[in-house]
Amino acid sequence: MVFLSVRARVCRVRRGVPQGSPTCSQGVTGGQARRNSPGCGGCRRSPVARRWAPGRGAREGCLRGVRRRGANRFWPPRGGESLLVAGIDEVAQAAGVSTATVSRALRGLPNVSAATRARVRAVAEELGYVPSPSAASLATGRTRTIGVITPWVSRWFFANVIEGAERALRSVGYDVLLYTFEVGEDRPRRKVDPTVLRRRVDGTLVVGLPLDDDEVRSLVDLGTPLAFVGSGPADQVTVRLDDVRTGSLATWHLIDLGHRVIGHVTGMPDLVSSWSPPVGRSTGYERALVAAGLEVSAGLVANGGFDVEGGRSSTRELLRRRPDVTAIFAASDEMAMGAILAARDLGLDVPGDLSVIGVDGHDLGELVGLTTIGQDAYQQGADASMLLMEMINGAPVPESLTYPTHLVRRASTARPR
């Protein structure tokens, strides 16, 4: 389907139909219709009248439309021909209101009655009218776009947060502009460049990407609302878990089962931010061990890189180094799944020889019987995006929203043999 925007005073008609036929293809320039053309009477009406009132031209499918009295687009033809997009003038004429009322009704603004709003929307849908984002931006000074910055889009937590945010924003007429800044051990992450967002977004959502102080300051200096999901500095609006409590809860589950040598598969150890999730979860792990009088040692910790393969390789390394480990707390479900694969690689039974617990509530967790600390990542993304909308509209918002977690007991943890 082809969408054409008619700008010139030229009649756009079906091609390939002989002149003078009932569906005349002869176009006319200027405001004067070719009224003497045999079998065609539709051009005697205004564009809106031709759409709504029956007539010979309308019945026989005439697509001739002459631009006059402010009309600049034409009713889309039927039967598979090229579609000509209606404009706001046509919607206003057909609904019997001003173009300003059309704009307010379709944008959900106040001072439009319910009946008028419904009529305008019905006419707009009938005519196939879609408001121009660029025109709306000029009128409001807003881009109706939110920038989302994240290290990954394929991993469970990030994918669910982004999906929740995108759907919530779409429901209020906003788009998402996505930037990824992959974090890896083998290469430094490129710095966040705020210039790519300037004048392009009304706000920015940072999803699970640890930033240094200069990067945070550069985003604040954009002068648009800023919010974080998963981790964020104390002076910025953040939607997150209590990661210290999460790490402690997971570790205490293993301690309560009777495990006394507990390993930990964490994320990147060299992250620049003290407020990142792996730091908080590691702190909770260590505090639980100290409270239980158990060993805390760097030799019991391995970096799994927050993915399955990283969890697998780091667990193999950890178990070779410390074969006395009977349980592992992994800081994400994907690393926990990797730990289970590593145990099988080494001929160990889960949970008979090794108990494993993760964090997230991954969709595949139930399939593999993974015990985890569950969280609602999708809702965190949705709520964070709505906080941004409140900030854009000038409403006060809390500096942080802390989401609850809960223990999900499955088959990957048990008492040690």
TrEMBL record:
Full protein name: LacI family DNA-binding transcriptional regulator
SMART domains in alphabetical order: HTH_LACI
A single GO molecular function term of this UniProt record: DNA binding
Species of origin: Oerskovia merdavium
Matching CDD domains: HTH_LacI, PBP1_LacI_sugar_binding-like
Region annotation Disordered: where it falls in the sequence: 17-48
One of the Pfam families matching this protein, by short name: LacI
Keywords associated with the record: DNA-binding, Transcription, Transcription regulation
Start and end residues of each HTH lacI-type domain: 86-140
